[in-house]
Design brief:
By secondary structure, the chain is an alpha+beta fold. It has a single domain, classed as B-lactam Antibiotic, Isopenicillin N Synthase, Chain (Jelly Rolls). The chain is 29% helix and 21% strand. It contains 11 helices and 17 strands. The strands form 4 sheets. It has an 8-stranded mixed beta sheet with strand order 3-4-13-10-15-8-6-5. Strands 2-12-11-14-9 form a 5-stranded mixed beta sheet, with no helix packed on it. Strands 1-7 form a two-stranded parallel sheet. Helix 4 packs across helix 7 and helix 5 crosses helix 7. It starts with 6 loop residues before the first strand and ends with a helix. Belongs to the iron/ascorbate-dependent oxidoreductase family. It comes from Protea cynaroides. Keywords: Iron, Metal-binding, Oxidoreductase.
Length: 360
């Protein structure tokens, strides 16, 4: 599907500058020549010394899903289902998105964060449903402890938006958004089949033609006391699937069977996690995965997440085809995706507290 013409948005409300005026961005703080310890409002009290293990993470060969033999496709669909059920996370290889496009996208994100604070304020906005906003931490307006992270969030589908600066960002992000959207939608076809549903069930039920796709760029600068700070706390994502890439600096950890697993991505792979709305649609068979971002004391980490969700107006509830009044009753109540997104993004980020609100 062809990308729509960019809508270049500038925000001008003085209220939008509040988080920057009060605390500045982490990048600016980290680059201060006088910084030797982190301010007290960045000290994360949760124990970061939890046991972290290394395990083999499921790997999905995308080419077998799209161009394999019927037997190969059947096996990869089963592998997709097992990864969603056992992990809520997998790596995708042979996806067809050019490596140079991925690198250009990460470089474009770096250029955005390298803009002056005055230039970045142009895109700051306090409302979570604005199509372009940048800021620091997660939701600085309600948080008591801030996270060691700056971000840019852009709605790129069904209507394409882009910041005006830096030059070239719009063109690169348009190409990248289209290619990752194609990968996500093909994965959702396979996931739909793995649930015993028709291939296009999720596509049709979630109205993906008008589905929300959000580009989320994250900057985690070097931290002088990384053992005390957190890039992002344990949380699950809204939506159906999130596709993530990062520079060569790892920092993603996922929770699996009560332990934190350090994710080491394969070259040119996508890291994919299931979201809250896939958990709701599958009536809990495929659970969204808790994950967190840690920081380090030496190098800047950049990650780029592409979140894929239903259309804003879709009321997401368990698929009726998967329910049984006696053995498998509905475990979640329906909620419009727009309302869920506003609820999650407008509050403190804390594990699955938003999803808990729609549990029956």
């Amino acid at each position: 599907m062809a990308a729509k013409s960019p809508i270049l948005v500038k925000t001008t409300s003085s209220a939008s500058y509040l988080p920057f005026r009060n605390m500045g961005c982490v990048k600016e703080l980290a680059e201060s020549s006088t910084l030797s310890s982190i301010p007290s409002h960045y000290v994360f009290s949760t124990n970061l010394e939890d046991q972290v293990v290394t395990e083999e993470i499921p790997i999905i060969d995308f080419s077998l899903l799209t161009s394999g033999t019927p037997d190969q496709r059947f096996k990869i669909v089963q592998a997709l289902g097992k990864a969603c059920q056992d992990w809520g996370f997998f790596m995708v290889i042979n996806h067809g998105v050019p490596e140079n496009l991925r690198e250009e996208m990460l470089e474009a994100c770096q250029r955005f964060f390298d803009l002056t604070e005055e230039e970045k304020r142009e895109y700051a906005d306090k409302h979570v449903l604005d199509p372009i906003r940048c800021g620091t931490s997660f939701n600085a307006s309600v948080e008591k402890v801030f996270f060691w992270r700056d971000f840019l969030k852009v709605f790129v589908h069904p209507e394409f938006h882009s910041p005006v600066k830096p030059p070239g960002f719009s063109e690169i992000s348009s190409k990248y958004s289209k290619r990752t959207r194609e990968v996500a939608w093909e994965l959702l076809k396979g996931i739909s089949e793995s649930l015993g549903l028709e291939e296009h069930y999720i596509d049709n039920a979630m109205k993906l033609e008008k589905g929300l796709q959000v580009l989320v760029a994250n900057l985690y600068p070097p931290c002088p006391q990384p053992q005390l700070a957190m890039g992002l706390p344990p949380h699950s994502d809204h939506g159906l699937l999130t596709l993530l890439i990062e520079n060569t600096i790892g920092g993603l950890q996922i929770q699996h069977r009560g332990k934190w697993v350090q994710v080491n991505s394969l070259p040119n792979s996508f890291l994919v996690n299931t979201g809250d709305h896939l958990e709701i649609l599958s009536n809990g068979k495929y659970k969204s995965v808790l994950h967190r971002a840690i920081v380090n004391g030496k190098t800047t980490r950049i990650s780029l997440a592409m979140a894929h969700g239903p259309s804003f107006d879709t009321v997401v509830s368990p698929a009726p085809e998967l329910l049984n009044s006696e053995s498998n009753p509905p475990a979640y109540s329906g909620m419009k995706y727009r309302d869920y997104l506003e609820l999650q993004q407008g509050n403190v980020l804390d594990r699955k507290t938003c999803l808990d609100r729609v549990r029956v």
